[in-house]
TrEMBL record:
Keywords for the protein's UniProt record, in alphabetical order: Transferase, Tricarboxylic acid cycle
Coiled-coil region list: none
Any one Pfam family match given in the protein's UniProt record, by short name: Citrate_synt
Name the record gives this protein: Citrate synthase
Amino acid sequence: MTNTANIAKGLEGVLFTESKLTFINGSEGILTHLGIPIQEWAENSTFEELSLALLEARLPTAEELARFDADLKANRAVPQSLLDVIQAMPRGVHPMQALRTAVSYLGLLDAQAEETTEEARRAISVRMIAQFATVIAAINRAQEGQEIVAPRMDLTHAGNFLYMLTGKEPTQEQARLFDIALVLHADHGMNASTFTAIATASTLSDMYSCITSAIGALKGPLHGGANEAVMDMLDEIGTPEKAAEYIGGKLDRKEKVMGVGHRVYKYFDPRSRVLRDYAEHVANKEGKSQYYQILETIERVVVERIGSKGIYPNVDFYSGTVYSDLGIKKEYFTPIFALARISGWCASVIEYTRDNRLLRPDARYIGETDQHYVPLQER
């Protein structure tokens, strides 16, 4: 019998579960975690606190947060055998390929990896949240032919990552700026990578397989990587004076402008409003205002020309310049995305598997019917 239900291309508008973690109202530009606006998380909280809040689906106490922070610090180091694997990876390998391989290898080394109870998933989540920073920094250092920097226990999660990445202790302002960027990217509802992690989890597969699946989904340029494309666009434009003509030409030709438009948001992505202010501050302070001036012009032209169609800058529009000013190379922007989103991935897997049901969608068959096998020699 033919399935006559309407097809939701890309599963748009399809509800398959309930969640207490993240709410998005795209038409009004609203994003909340646990009912709290993202702007308040960015202004008042830390990546560590938001990670724990997502895992527990509630605000933690000071004592709980201190214990969680201590657990993260205690789990920052990774086994030497993994560092050997990272150092043996071919030069020029895609950083997301390297991350996917490293996380899968971590699963081989974790004695608890095959356990799928909520308690085990949470313990593994803490280790992965801590170790993603160490792994990504190690991949970058190894690919640059530099000595891998061991983690420090006296720095914040964000500050420690920047230290392991560059070998230099960041300023408090740099660490806080990066912390805010992590907060803004920690979770975003049922995006492609989170859905992929949940789909894998619904089979009762192990946590490392769930997160490896999510990394594979994030690697795709329609999900991760847009902020890298924004930086390529800025380099192509070159100077602020050329920005308006460049973007106007793209819009005239109906070409995509990177960092503009979002599947969910039909107004300004609230995360982009937070990052815009910080991007402006950093640009003015560091004397790197050219990128920001180009972005300002692009935003003005886009809003004037196509804002009425619900197309506005998204979080990727400004995040690349922030990362660039922190000394992060653009090929590592997507791994940085994973560094933040690991919290949302883990929290969503834990939440979904509390009332698990195997995901098994259907597809409408449009092929031929009433056919019979034709012997190979008669074809």
